[in-house]
Amino acid sequence: MTSISHHIPEPMLAAYAAGTLPHAFSVVVATHISMCSECRAVVEAHEAVGGIVLDDMLRADVSSSMKSNVLAMLDDPFQDTPVYQRRGPYPGPVMEALKGQEPRWKKLGMGVRQDILSEDKHGSVRLLYIPPGQAVPDHGHNGLELTLVLQGSFSDETGQFGVGDVEVADETLEHTPIAGMEDVCICLAATDARLRFNAFVPRLLQPIFRI
Amino acid sequence: TQAKAEPSRETLWMIAVRDHRDKAAFSALFDHFAPRLKGFVMRNGTSAAQAEEIVQDVMLTLWRKAHMFDPHRAQVSAWVYQIVRNRQIDVARKENRPMPEALKEEPEAEPDASQIVSIEQETGQLRDALQRLRPEQREVIEKAYLGELTHQEISTQTGLPLGTIKSRIRLGLQRLRHELKDLSE
Ligand SMILES: [Zn+2]
Ligand SMILES: [Zn+2]
């Protein structure tokens, strides 16, 4: 395994296990866990606590017809949900967000491209494509941003990020990420849109750039 | 908790379902989990009728995805917890919760009873620790895992002593190192 040195903060892993992390961040967490057994173990530990809560839950009687229904359905044929396999630099959860297709890159300028995988009122998640040695324009954050490296690397004021590493950025970070020279840097980035509208990015431009 | 040499009944039932499609074992798992699941789902105000629908889906998933169960990393309750939270989120969002790539046992892997038992002992100690909490602390934990707290709220509450169970689960993951190696290629 490549050595990962920047992980997901534990409260986010706990919220992921409890199912309360916003969708956009959950895509990044599921992707990181696909690459990192350390964080996978943390999530599974939190699921163990969830299991205890479930096991100690006040029981509610179930109707006897429900049990016979379930038993009668055991041999029924069923449609399994599709399982998306990793393709190239894209782990299963990214392939699922891409619905099994290749990314449809949109140019952002200076060779940087993006593909927005999903967005809703709680946030958005996108793929970023940064040519070797290219800097992403200096920017601040209006909310929380998780950036996971899928290919290549980048570095900024806070350190170096290689494949599997996650950078957690918030309002306090102003940074200029620069892609490493060795390869195109491909990242999965999720942001929390809720706080964005308070800040100085002109509201009128947001629908155009969707950033 | 006392040291047990044998895995719990639930684990043995689940292995019987996984490896032998054992319907009597499934029926025993149903009797254990269905009332707890219904209580769990109704805690956030879901109606009894809709709760039964969710419980039915969860129990069918347990049967159909039994091959995904790995007793070296999880107790049955932890695995069922993950399934019911998925189902609740899917119902609420009408979209699947993003899930990591699955890791699977090598087909020829023999169950390692000592690893299974040590996971259960760690879980037992965690349960004891939870039971020693003051009722209001205990309620915060319940709320968190019922899905009623945000990650910011989770980060401000006092952490649980998860250190040893994490390292046990990590051991379970190490058994899968071949698959992990494949993933990184
Ligand atoms: Zn990690
Ligand atoms: Zn940034």
TrEMBL record, chain A:
It holds the Pfam family Cupin_7. Transmembrane segments: none annotated. InterPro entries: Anti-sigma_ChrR, Anti_sigma_zinc_sf, ChrR-like_cupin_dom, RmlC-like_jellyroll, RmlC_Cupin_sf. Residues 101-191 form the ChrR-like cupin domain. This is Transcriptional activator ChrR. It comes from Shimia marina. The lineage of its organism: Bacteria, Pseudomonadati, Pseudomonadota, Alphaproteobacteria, Rhodobacterales. The gene is chrR.
